[in-house]
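If it is no trouble, can you show me the amino acids of a protein and the tokens describing how it folds?
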Amino acid sequence: MKAYINRDCLWMNVPIRLSELLGESRDKIIGRSVSDYFVEEDREKINQQWLELITHSTNSFSLFTKMIGADKETIDVQLVCFYPGEFEKNGVDIVAYIQDLTKQNRHVRTIENQVKEHTRFIELLSDGYLLVDSEGRIKEVNNAYCRMTGYSRKEVLGMTIFDINPDLTPDDQQQLIDSLKKNQSQSIEVIHRSRQGSNLELQGTLVALERDDGIYIAGIVKNITEHNAIMRELTKQSVFNSKLLESTNDGYILADAKGNILDVNPAYSQMVGYTREELQKMTIRELESNFNDEEIFEIIKEAMETGNVKFKTSHLNSSGNDVILESSLTLIDGVEDEPLVVGFVRDITANMLLMNKIKESEERWEGLVKDNPNAVVLTKGEEIIFVNDAVLKLYGTDKESEIVGHFLLEFIHPDDREKVKSRLRNFNAGGTEPPADLRFMRKNGEVRYLEVHSTQARFHGLTAIQSVLHDVTDRVLYKRSIEKSLKQKEVLLEEVHHRVKNNLAVVSGLMELKVMYTQNEELAKELTDSYQRIHTMARIHETMYQNESLEDLQFHELVEQLVDSVLTAFEAEQVHVSYDLEPVILTVNDAIPCALILNEVVSNSVRHGFKEYETAELSLKIEQHKGQVDLQIMDNGSGIPDHIIENRNDSLGFTLMDMLTDQLSGKLTIKGAEDAGGTVVRLQFPNESA
């Protein structure tokens, strides 16, 4: 049935057969919209094809659809539309062929007539057309099919359907014919091989045509190779996205514009404690516990305007508890222009609880520190970000703005700033620093001495350095006063030692003069002994005021000087002396009696023990063990007679040594040498400096 339609898609002329088919008069049909007579589900498709035709995006279109009769019954038809030829008159815009497909024989005859009468129409089709006989020989093709496959019409008409579709067999061909006889038409997707050898994926509709010379198959096909490749890629991407959504730890929600949940992933299902099936029966409103309907509408509105919106919210889980979520919402196109809501959510409940605890802890810390009597300051880099009231008081202000926001170095004495910079660099590198003494500049210019204890801390989510400042100005000044006083006393004590040494030197000098002028040998002997004793004490005092310490001295270093002094006094430098001296430090209270005992023993050895100095030997040994000093003096002289040792209290020298030993709380033993004769004197006493 041939009809004419204008650009507004209104019937201009319809054949009587179409009028009869629809059950309405021609006058009632003409002037009405063409789409009114087609089923609703195909109207959008027809309008789209119509738009492409009148905008010259295509030359023709063909589709199988259903028309609606006056009795509301549907009629299977094929609608073919194309531009008219030059012979058409009366302002005709579009020629339409409508074929009733209700009855098979009528359909076959109509298709045959269409093929014979409208070869030109076939050539105008943008889709490929081919006619194949029952043996598979290709009898007719249009230009569109030739362009599609790359063959010329002459090449194609010499081929069989089996040449361009190797997967098809004669049995398949016969089954297809039998099927088409029963079902009138059939939609298919097949593979045809192009002239270049590539496979073309074709989609189309086949019908069986019965002619006098046999059964033919006519087909209109469209090349969907590229479309299928895109669809396969989209399917692959869809599968990938689906797997990604199934495996991600973030929750996924798909809902319609009314809030009905269409789909979720396992992560969201686990977050709220519902199964996917349970959630697909619920709405977002049932889960949302943070926003009301109006607020939700505003969020969706913002998403429509910006494309995406991020916010925090809470959903109720199956136990009725809030799950705090960080959400990202996007709108996408759905079916029939209905938008769909896509939401990605992350469970931050644990993080929020932790942050709240940290915040509460910081607030408690800040409350405690605020009233802390110790000055507390927090810095980020070199900038001060927090101080307590004690710092304000220390600086001499009641305004935080005079300190907070300023650089720490502004309040540090210029000579200490490099030390502070070094400490800050070490802290920023993750290190630690021991307490430090720094000078702090008050508002009025006064310098205060601070003992600073610093450590890393967290403050309002920032990594900072917390420093506790102890004002030790009074302690520093007192220490300086003590040090000054001590220095004065040390100088005074040095002077005392020096003057004692000088006075002793004067006394010993007078005695030495007396010895030189006396004729009394006994008196000369006594004066020499006294002179040597005084000289020994003077040597001790001389060492003390020359020593860094006024309390202790290195006694082992003094021994050789004392022995040399005795030998010189008695002109006995030829005596061979050996030393085995461990380092021993003695206080002045121990050094003087020990030195005097040493003086007495060496003097006795030189004066009484040795007959000839050339063969005389003197051995001295000092060692210290567990706080006990052990001084041993041994000579190879004639030895001390036993009766003198037994009556030693009658000797001034022995009496003096015993008194000095008692002063040391020590023990003095005198005996003869077992190996080579001579005398061994051993002094043992506790060391106060050990």
Summary: The first strand starts at residue 2 and ends at 5. The chain has a mean pLDDT of 82. Residues 295 and 350 are 25 Å apart (CA to CA).
